[in-house]
Design brief:
94 residues, 3-stranded antiparallel β-sheet, 21% helix
Length: 94
């Protein structure tokens, strides 16, 4: 007699990752792949920013110009767009 698992070959093999383990793995990958957008349109990684930190140009207004390897020049960082603030309703919810 041959014992076959249910669903045949589609059966899950071995212990899978739990939801918590998948969340931790996704957070590590997101943290490791951070990109910074420059005004030239190119992206640089955090590691590249740290590598060229010694030659970053600080302007008199407090902003910092970062080095772009593709353009071979310094450009400003494009800040992320702010989310719109939702209006608070005047009537109570209860």
């Amino acid at each position: 007699m041959i014992i076959k698992p249910p669903y045949g070959d589609r059966a899950r093999k071995g212990p899978g990752l739990s939801a918590r383990e998948m969340a931790v793995k996704a957070a590590i990958e997101a943290d490791a792949s951070r990109y910074i957008e420059l005004t030239c349109g190119h992206f640089i990684t955090v590691e590249t920013k740290e590598r060229y930190a010694f030659c970053a140009i600080k302007s008199q207004f407090g902003s910092v110009q970062l080095y772009c390897e593709n353009c071979d020049d310094f450009y400003y960082h494009v800040p992320p767009k702010a989310r719109p603030i939702e209006d608070i309703p005047q009537t109570p919810l209860f």
